[in-house]
């Protein structure tokens, strides 16, 4: 959402039937009206005569400027990655627009483009995964921007406030957060006052029973398995439902841990990668090996090792983001998502890294299991921002069905132990999180639980498919004011 320069109205994005459009309404209410179709993230120029916004273009976005009614439309930048969602910022004199080119686990570099000539220039040249500039605002004078900034290629790197010189590309870090993240800076027109959001994230692991036919009853009585002191996320359960795998920071740096779900023993750290470099992971079907993502080399790459910590091996090594590795039912292959092509791909390789090939076009966050009908295997994956699940036949390389679940977004769908059901988290527009279960054969869907807290990632089948494990991921935010921030 953004205000008009006179403060009398706001522009906002409304999404209907998976199509986003730009709307305007008065700050005191009244009838909203659509101003531009198939576009989003509108920002008005300082004089209020133009709008900058993004338009979906195949697997990318295009930065466009037009009149406030959509006329005299001009494309200023093409092939902008759609994730993280891009947003432009105007210089105070209206001559320049800035935006960030990023991608999933990719560097986040700042670009500026001259609104009149279309001349574009890259300001920063970061190469590490996730490092770089995010939301930003122009200071008076047109040379400096203030931005929230990630300085390190790590899965849980801090986000701080930084000053960016668009002429030299230098970035001066102004804050050094520890447990919180500074983000979304906004400036007064003279730059003297800055407000930003300071956020810490509560991460817990809960188990939700499916004993009741009433989803409200199931969601009302979950059992907490790990509290926020463990700081666990990206959980995965072994196929036999006995072992929980998670990334936790109890040792001071986020690493992988395993824990028996029957309470018969203590959690045990199984990786020793320094500096919060560990991310997504999964256990092999027999529970003896683990595949995981590591940022240790500065990019998002796939590794495997034994659960006793021995024989760590790096399987991918490239500038692309390789993510969400999941084992094949035979324990000899891995499916994962990659951004090495022109768009997101679903790829497969042997567990030793050989035979690495593209399997399907499109985003992968999902699961792989034997076909319960005894005919090969099945892969289920989400398609990210489209809120669509796809059921795939990897042997025949065909899509069996697609199912849209509004609010699902980046969930990781999971098969039940018998392969006949699929779990997926989704959010209502009110923010309430639900768990959906789909019939793997038909795609028929029903809600099995309404949760009392926000959850993300997977809903994992345990207890003989009579319960699901979920990750509570809840940001706790405050607004911070910096007085006397800028004196030119």
Summarize the structure in words.
It is a single chain. With 488 residues, the protein is mainly beta. The chain has 3 domains: 1-61 and 69-74, no CATH class; 83-187, Neuraminidase (6 Propeller); 202-475, 6 Propeller (Neuraminidase), CATH 2.120.10.30. It has 1 helix and 41 strands. Strands 17, 18, 19, 40 and 41 form a 5-stranded antiparallel sheet that branches. The mean pLDDT is 91.
Report the radius of gyration as a whole number of Å: 23 Å
Total discrete domains: 3
Q: State the major sheet.
A: 5 strands, antiparallel
Return the structural class: mainly beta
Write out the CATH superfamily name of the largest domain. TolB, C-terminal domain
Q: And the CATH topology of the largest domain?
A: Neuraminidase
**Count of helical segments?**
1
Strand content: over 45%
The count of strands amounts to: 41
Mass-distribution shape: globular
From the N-terminal CA to the C-terminal CA, the straight-line distance is: 29 Å
The assigned CATH architecture of the largest domain is 6 Propeller
Give the integer mean of the pLDDT values. Answer: 91
CATH class of the largest domain: Mainly Beta
> Could you list the spans in which at least 5 consecutive residues all have pLDDT below 50?
none
Brief rundown of the structure:
1% of the residues lie in helices and 52% in strands.
What are its keywords?
488 residues, Neuraminidase, 3 domains, five-stranded antiparallel beta sheet, four-stranded antiparallel beta sheet, 52% strand, globular
